[in-house]
Amino acid sequence: MASLLKGVGFVTGAAAGVLTCYPARTSAEDPEPSLTQSVGIGKATAQSFVRHGVRRLAIGDINLPALKETASDLKLQYPDLEVVPLELDTSSESLVDKSIADTVKHFGRIDYAVNNAGIAGKAWRSADSDLEGWNKTVDVNLTGVWLCSRAQIRAMLKQNPLEASPRFNRGVIINVASMYGIIGTPLEVGAVVYTATKHGVVGMTKADAIAYAGENIRINAICPGYVATPLLKSAAAEAWQRLAEMDEIGDSITYMASPLSSFMYGSAMVVDGGYTIQ
Prior knowledge:
By secondary structure, the protein is an alpha/beta fold.
């Protein structure tokens, strides 16, 4: 099978770990319980990239030990892979710029960039929310994605397409939003700040897609629905026939990065099993 992806990949949030989720809080007097679920869209994306041809890959995450585990797993499966793990807090401008500069210095370019790092934040309604929680979630989910995208755009503007063909670009950027970047969260979920940041990612993606289409840089967003994790699998039978598997999201991102989607600009591709059409 011919390789879909022949260039250099860059993926943030690529360490398998846990995401802390806070059930909706309807009153300031309510307790603040939290639930954790394993996540791994970034790792699944890295795996899909490599499975479809990438042999030069930089992966970033704030959790360096878990990130190195991802790198080791990939190298074990694909010995010819050159993978660079980068400790990265995407809310830090200096660290983001350094990670992109280090990747370009090491590999010479970035062809496929995926901005996946994010946090759930607290699932509170506005009246019960605090500014500190708002700012933290915005810093990671929106500002962090923008910082990464900005640095990637600056790098891609300095390079030529891999091939002289309309199907190839100077670079492709995929920002990971959420189905809650398209719709509002249900009352029982709450999460006003999470919803606001994911809508922001979709809007930023569309604005940048317009701004840089003429520069031959493709920018799109993906809006995943609920993904199969230990926490959610037990609820799947009640709400949906099934939940998405991690590799289904990763493969969707690979499609968006590849020449197969070469005419896709500024899209917010929803991959949610039909949740948002109900």
